[in-house]
Design goal:
The chain contains seven helices and ten strands. It is α+β, with helices and mostly antiparallel strands and 299 residues long. α1 packs antiparallel against α2.
Length: 299
């Protein structure tokens, strides 16, 4: 018999909600006033002692509710384990002293991943690293949905970079279409793909990626020399192709100029010999040595 999968109700995601705190400077003035009146009343015996002590105690009880927030900083407030809200107000603030608070930075942060050894689309081992700029945008998700959002960001960034490397080849080649994006040539496209992937992974943690760029990209040491020779061979072939193309154009222009000016009348054999000599001179990667022919072409 086929076992039935138990129905599991989806757990609601904890989202951030704003919390309105009280101006802490006014509360501080009230605290100082209560303590001052209580002490003065005790010294001057202006009221019964229990009443004076009560004023001092009330002032002292209000003090734990004071907290300071810097710009781009928030505090998550809970009361007996229940989430009350997140206060993002700057300066000195006051709330219920029974509430506990956890401050969290809302500033942009940098994560520079160390070079990771992965395989690209072709299966070649490469080293790749990236710099990720991120920040917390939902404090409740970052604290209550994730155990440690800093470790979460680091681990998921490494996973995203490894996945990215498998989608693209390191460099273009004969086995790839000419318009296909590569890690080496399509840095902007690769960076956009990395940022989108990271934002999808970080969505559940209340974290957004502001920017992501590759900072390190190289072949692994075991194949670096082989790939370097391959790149050199491609460069040499490209240079030779350009040299030959230019030499053919120069020979064509020389023959056309001689023919138009009627300086020398050349038959097909002499033209072939001239073309051969000019191509040797123009395409050779070494200095050519002239040979003086004292006879004729046929002797």
């Amino acid at each position: 018999m086929q076992e039935k999968t138990p129905n599991i109700n989806p757990r609601p995601v904890r989202m951030e909600r704003p919390y309105r705190s009280i101006n802490g400077y006014g509360v501080s003035a009230v605290v100082l006033l209560l303590i001052a009146i209580g002490v003065w009343a005790i010294v001057q015996r202006l009221m019964p002692l229990p009443m004076s002590v009560l004023l001092i105690v009330v002032g002292l009880v209000l003090i734990p509710g004071l907290y300071m927030l810097q710009p781009n900083e928030g505090i998550i407030l809970t009361l007996f384990g229940q989430y009350q809200g997140t206060d993002r107000s700057e300066g000195l603030r006051w709330t219920n002293p029974l509430q506990s608070g956890q401050k969290i930075s809302l500033r942009a942060r940098n994560l520079n991943t160390p070079p990771l050894k992965v395989n690209d689309k072709r299966g070649n081992p490469v080293e790749i690293g990236a710099a990720v700029v991120w920040r917390v945008y939902d404090t409740a998700q970052a604290v209550f949905e994730i155990d440690d959002y800093n470790k979460f960001v680091a681990i998921q960034s490494e996973a995203a970079i490894r996945h990215l490397a498998t989608l693209y080849a390191y460099d273009s080649g004969d086995d790839l279409p000419s318009e296909e994006t590569t890690l080496r040539a399509g840095l902007d496209t690769v960076a956009d793909a990395l940022r989108d992937d990271l934002n999808r992974r970080f969505a559940s943690a209340g974290v957004e990626v502001l920017d992501a760029k590759l900072t390190h990209l190289a072949y692994a040491p075991e194949i670096a020399q082989v790939m370097l020779r391959r790149q050199q061979a491609v460069a040499i072939v490209s240079a030779r192709h350009q040299i030959v193309s230019g030499a053919v154009g120069m020979v064509e222009a020389a023959l056309k100029g001689l023919s138009e000016r009627n300086l020398v009348v050349l038959d097909d054999e002499r033209k072939a010999s001239m073309v051969s000599n000019l191509l040797v001179v123009l395409c050779s990667d070494r200095e050519t040595q002239p040979v003086v022919n004292t006879g004729t072409l046929y002797t």
